[in-house]
Design brief:
With about 150 residues, the protein is an all-alpha fold. The chain has three helices and no strands.
Length: about 150
């Protein structure tokens, strides 16, 4: 068997395995963040979580497929390891960037949700201040000729 094909097979198996592992980790732990952000709406949290995981798979597996081909013809075992280290290193970097991006977005959403929950007016409204003329606002300028 051609060593280039062996390198491709190993690359695909490891890259797809890593992608699945990271996606499951994001799904399992991201659901907690989404549940908090969405105020305990579990169905919506599950739906958003599933959509994020599908997007993660599409982006990363698309990158893995695009990065599969190589210009070099691998002739020895050393070449297999060199090609794999380069390809897998780039895939790991992309996975890391996507993972950090997901964590950043989830934490930003969570922070926004916490801030929205904690915002309360300092004093509840107790009524309206009425001017002498109830027909128009007391702060408005008088009409011309009035």
């Amino acid at each position: 068997m051609d060593l280039t094909v062996v390198a491709y097979v190993v690359y695909l198996v490891v890259s797809i395995g890593l992608t699945i592992w990271v996606a499951r980790t994001l799904s399992r732990n991201g659901r907690i963040f989404l549940g908090d952000v969405l105020h305990g709406n579990e169905k919506l949290a599950d739906a958003v979580n599933h959509l994020l995981v599908v997007g993660f798979y599409l982006v990363n597996l698309g990158f893995v497929a695009l990065y599969l081909s190589g210009d070099d013809n691998i002739t020895d075992t050393r070449g297999v390891f060199e090609a794999l280290s380069t390809k897998l290193g780039v895939v790991l970097l992309v996975l890391g960037v996507l993972h950090l991006g997901n964590v950043w977005v989830l934490s930003k959403m969570r922070r926004r949700g916490i801030m929205e929950r904690e915002q309360r007016p300092p004093v509840p409204p107790q009524g309206f201040l009425g001017g002498q003329d109830q027909g128009r606002d007391s702060w408005a300028a008088p009409a011309a000729g009035a």
